[in-house]
């Protein structure tokens, strides 16, 4: 406890770090306040129980509940995230985007600008769909045509406002702004979920021991998730010794940290999108409700969990293959005079790196699949679905990853000022260990 207070005191002594933390907290408070502002022309009392499920529930989680509240920030940062993913994929397939990735700071600025323009387009399309399908007609107080035009404009402006807040946090605050905004939206659900679980266990069932076991299990799951997020395979790299004048360059051994889970949460998001297809088909075609497709309407069913796990493993290999480029890593190593001991530079090096990535990706994908289906297992054990979401899946991975990234930045400030780090032994490391895993230059890191 003394170590904790000493660390907090050291953090407060660093003026720049203190100002960045305060700035970040103020921006996040502004975001949470504005997220409760309902669209103009909507009667908030007429919305009733507007909770979402399925893919819409996932969007509502990322938006911090704004999606179901019909807020002016209902679309949140998801259009920006979608645009960032599109630009990242274009950087793999389109030569002109690959060229911009290699242009350094100027190239990153161009890609960020393209991402912003693409965000405007995606937001406009999603705003039209949201107003048409998600706003109850009985809650609209003004002319429907005027409401449609006004709401489309307001929703688009709201997403751009959230994007601006995220970039301001990244520039003048601490941590990645977009990721922090998503994290705050997820954490906002925790107090109510915990209250419901405590009420259900202690007051209704009288199961205080069961509640304690649930908290212990949650702690163990969080520790397991941290191991997956932090796990790396260090590949040694030796740099040739060069003498320039009276100075020696190179001649040192470094490491390439290849992440066990280089794909992050993207495989879960892709897999969830596919798992919602059977449910959507049964809604449009009622005759299919008596077929085998109905099994995929229950997230706790065995068929759903096995299929979900298989899709996550497949998408983990796919996303890792398109984001981590062994050939580029080998070329960069060769240009800087580096080589892996015992491996020839060039094709042999890229093949070796690709083989290592393949070997570590399989256990990483299996562990990721286990984390993804843990909420369903928690529901099977009688945990409320709202609280079970924090036992795994996208929400837990985002929370763990964002917290680690933010703590890593805080610790770097402490170490630069010659203070002790956040831990007595070791150092906090975030998810940014693999440069190839985020090649778009975008600030949107999930």
UniProtKB/TrEMBL annotation:
What UniProt keywords are attached to this protein's entry? Answer: Cell membrane, Membrane, Protein transport, Translocation, Transmembrane, Transmembrane helix, Transport
One GO cellular component this record assigns the protein to is: plasma membrane
Domain of life of the organism encoding this protein? Bacteria
Q: Which GO terms describe its biological process?
A: intracellular protein transmembrane transport; protein targeting; protein transport by the Sec complex
| UniProt-listed SUPFAM superfamilies | Preprotein translocase SecY subunit
The record's annotation in InterPro entries points to:
SecY (IPR026593), SecY/SEC61-alpha (IPR002208), SecY_CS (IPR030659), SecY_dom_sf (IPR023201)
- Transmembrane helix as UniProt keyword: yes
Q: Which PANTHER family match?
A: SECY/SEC61-ALPHA FAMILY MEMBER (PTHR10906)
Q: Which family does it belong to?
A: Belongs to the SecY/SEC61-alpha family.
On subunit structure and binding partners, the annotation says: Component of the Sec protein translocase complex. Heterotrimer consisting of SecY, SecE and SecG subunits. The heterotrimers can form oligomers, although 1 heterotrimer is thought to be able to translocate proteins. Interacts with the ribosome. Interacts with SecDF, and other proteins may be involved. Interacts with SecA.
Q: Briefly state the protein's biological role.
A: The central subunit of the protein translocation channel SecYEG. Consists of two halves formed by TMs 1-5 and 6-10. These two domains form a lateral gate at the front which open onto the bilayer between TMs 2 and 7, and are clamped together by SecE at the back. The channel is closed by both a pore ring composed of hydrophobic SecY resides and a short helix (helix 2A) on the extracellular side of the membrane which forms a plug. The plug probably moves laterally to allow the channel to open. The ring and the pore may move independently.
Q: Indicate what this protein is called per its UniProt record.
A: Protein translocase subunit SecY
